[in-house]
Amino acid sequence: MPQNHAIRFGVIGCADIARKVSRAISLAPNAVIAAVGSRSLDKAKLFAEANGFPDDAKLYGSYEAVLDDPDIDAVYVPLPTSLHVRWAVVAAQKKKHVLLEKPVALNALEFDEIIEACESNGVQFMDGTMWVHHPRTSVIKDFLSDAHRFGELKSIHTCFTFGADADFLQNNIRVKPDLDALGSLGDAGWYCVRAILLAANYKLPKTVLASRDPVLNEAGVIMAAGASLYWEDGKVATFYCSFFSNLTMDITAIGTKGTLHVHDFIIPYQEKEASFYTSSESKFDELVTKWDSQPSKHTVNTDLPQEALMVTEFSRLVGEIKFNNSKPEKKWPTISRKTQTILDAVKASIDRGFEPVHIQE
Amino acid sequence: MPQNHAIRFGVIGCADIARKVSRAISLAPNAVIAAVGSRSLDKAKLFAEANGFPDDAKLYGSYEAVLDDPDIDAVYVPLPTSLHVRWAVVAAQKKKHVLLEKPVALNALEFDEIIEACESNGVQFMDGTMWVHHPRTSVIKDFLSDAHRFGELKSIHTCFTFGADADFLQNNIRVKPDLDALGSLGDAGWYCVRAILLAANYKLPKTVLASRDPVLNEAGVIMAAGASLYWEDGKVATFYCSFFSNLTMDITAIGTKGTLHVHDFIIPYQEKEASFYTSSESKFDELVTKWDSQPSKHTVNTDLPQEALMVTEFSRLVGEIKFNNSKPEKKWPTISRKTQTILDAVKASIDRGFEPVHIQE
């Protein structure tokens, strides 16, 4: 693509995750880093230097300045969740396309303000869930959609846990009620729920029930939680997320005819290849002393890391709008909202003393 | 060991599973198959022929005849669960040591009659859970007990599902309320619960809550179910069992410092070796684009299949009682009862409309 067709990104906020996404913007063939804004010009300068920004990238001492820059097509917003609605709405109003970190909002109603602003301003929305852009994910989805190899989904269990250190548990935005009030549920649970939705073909469950013993910190922010989800057709999902356990991220999906195991679904063990395991129509031998066959390992290679593929896809959609008069792709805000809806239901179930919460599509 | 020190087994009932355990008795170095009893002498004969019984094995047309045979030290009881209490109690009264299929009873109170009969007659009790006798299981237990590699257990998920065919769903004892009334919960859930107990160091949870959508057949027998279990210290366990899904059997145990994955914990993929995966202190790289290290695969070899090791251990304990005046080992009935107690709680939670059920140690 001609360089002048590349989508010009501004980054607002210098969170840790912005380092990785800035690199991804540099790696994406259809995007360029054009500006960074922080609450101080010094921080923006330091961030740009530390992350190898191009010399002509603009440095701003405020978020507004990035949004007011007519050379910027799109913004990446890594700010704490409590600031999402404010800055995503302003960005949309300034006709900037919005790539927003997850969780997208503190609740779905708040997220609706973001969607409304994006829709009425004709800008693309996408959340920062990177793993769904890895080519492995579509191969996994093919397996889960295969009537012969997988059949009908009956149960799925997902988890994402990591061991946060003392500094994180004291100071990270994810433990602060005024910043990322959903804590581990919003941070880690988000991915678990997205994987469940992907396997359930993005159909929302009818009922969500939080596990009975979530761990809250002194400020009431969720440090560890789980839930079970129930669909009309009898499908069941469970997930577990925590800041207090060894790093683990699994999808175990069981269908009538097949089984899927993924052990590194959010961040693959390696950048350029990622694997998963499937089995179909598994059987024991006649005397039930061993299996007829073992699961198959599937490996998918990628030249670009998944976060760069996310930026590439987002930039492609933005380019379609900018250069070809296309409409924004609604798939992305739709699945963001479904993910948020389930998080809301888990949170509501906790708040109501572990009552089941019913969801309407 | 001298052949006259080998423990002489009688098998009562010719269930499918008795074929595998008869082979295991033949393989065990300290046991011999000495008799089989069925409701008809013809069936006993056919079973003995089909399963390569020694020529001097006695064939009986009733269960009582096996129990009355003074040459028999121990009985293997593969009868439907509803018959367990009757026949295990009579066996103990006739001073036969009892190797009993799982689930051990329809409920823990019924099982207490079995324990009482075994204790008052000085005979060994063991249930037919084979996988705990695989040498892999003790290596797994070592990992789970390791404060440095695994730390403290925080969450565990187990499952056992298989796709039962139309004949099974119509005719198998496990779908019949008068035979194996606990259905999939007693058959498949038993193993899930045992794995959870092993990881929890056999400490019972304080609360058990059944998943909201169990599948029952027309007779009200459980075909698919799940539950979550909660301990005082905040540990959480979930499990899922089903007759309607592809064959799958997992343990995923997450501790503060380590993670365990097992994908074939009940029946290993192969008879003579079995694997599992561990990771400890797992971390991402600095930019969170990949992992520092991948899980380690551990493989444990065994000359004898796990069911023969079960028979060997049971026979060793019987030998200690018979030849060395030892007392029966209480560990085995104790963990059987704990497993049954949790199954009872899951069943009670289902029967009470998914209320949490509190357990007292």
From TrEMBL, chains A, B:
Highest taxon of source: Eukaryota
GO molecular function: nucleotide binding
Gfo/Idh/MocA-like oxidoreductase N-terminal domain sequence ranges: 7-126
Database matches in Pfam families: GFO_IDH_MocA (PF01408), GFO_IDH_MocA_C3 (PF22725)
InterPro entries xrefs: Gfo/Idh/MocA-like_OxRdtase_N, GFO_IDH_MocA-like_dom, NAD(P)-bd_dom_sf
All residue ranges annotated as the GFO/IDH/MocA-like oxidoreductase domain in the record: 146-260
Coiled coil residues, start to end: none
Similarity annotation: Belongs to the Gfo/Idh/MocA family.
PANTHER family tied to this protein: OS10G0403700 PROTEIN, PTHR46368
Name of the protein in question: Uncharacterized protein
